[in-house]
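Teaching note: in complex prediction, the entire set of molecules is handled at once rather than each chain in isolation. The prompt given to students was simply: 'Predict the structure of this complex.' The entities are:
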Amino acid sequence: MDNLTSLVAEAANQPSIPLSWYLYVALALFAIGAIGVMVRRNALTVLMSVEIMLNAVNLSFLAFARFHNDMNGHLVTFFVIAVAAAEAAVGLALVLGIFRHKKVVNVDTMSALRN
Amino acid sequence: MELEQIFFWLLAFGAVFTSILVVLPPGGKNPIFGALALILSFFFVAGIYVLLVAHLMAALQIMVYAGAIMVLFMFVIMLLNLSKRELGEESKTFVQGLGAVAMLFISVKAILIVEASADGISKRDMVLSQGFGTVESVADMLFHDYLFPFELAAVLLLVAIIGAVVLAKRTL
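The expected output is the structure of the full assembly:
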């Protein structure tokens, strides 16, 4: 058991994956989320795309934390998760309220504040 | 190829593929397919967190994101039970396409920047300190260095709860 633990620790100390690969995955996720926010018109899908973007940012924070041996990135990720939970709760309440009012969840119809 | 790399490619491909399914769902416009794909995506990303020696964050990712936030999403999607008409048209305007193309250009630019600068960090001595990413070390930082932000997060969540109740009420 001790042997296994030291083996795992050894592997964790010598990553065979460079930092840039993690950043490319984070970039891909962020781009997908941003394109989803800009292209999709369903309010629920837009909120889910925002969650993908937050996830991508978390991933890059954790990658930098691991490669700098600095735990601060983990704490930032912790707070991002807390903010994402709050954002999802308020966003979904807004969608519910707008649906009750307009009977549609399409963001194109949410233009009451324009002009 | 090493085992770590195989896992990384599996998880990375899964995360990106399922995220694409969220934005371009195969089952038509109903967001329930996107929500299910997003839950899978969170699990894949949690696997990548484990590769990054962030075990607590991986557990939190599954518990809070896949467990709490996505259940809330599924609940609202099923509560609304949207018909085709209520979902509305997916308009396709020039500005939307411009936004997507602009994002792709930004991605290419970001790849070039990472290509030019990230290798220096990768080659550094990367021996991790004792207890990196464990519950103990995260909690130690959370209740020493980040105590005030932690309390602020509590207030933020309280405000969000009250805001959600007020917004979702039938009459204000």
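Point out the following to students. Chain B has three domains: 1-90, 92-127, 128-172. Chain B touches chain A through 88 residues (CB under 8 Å).
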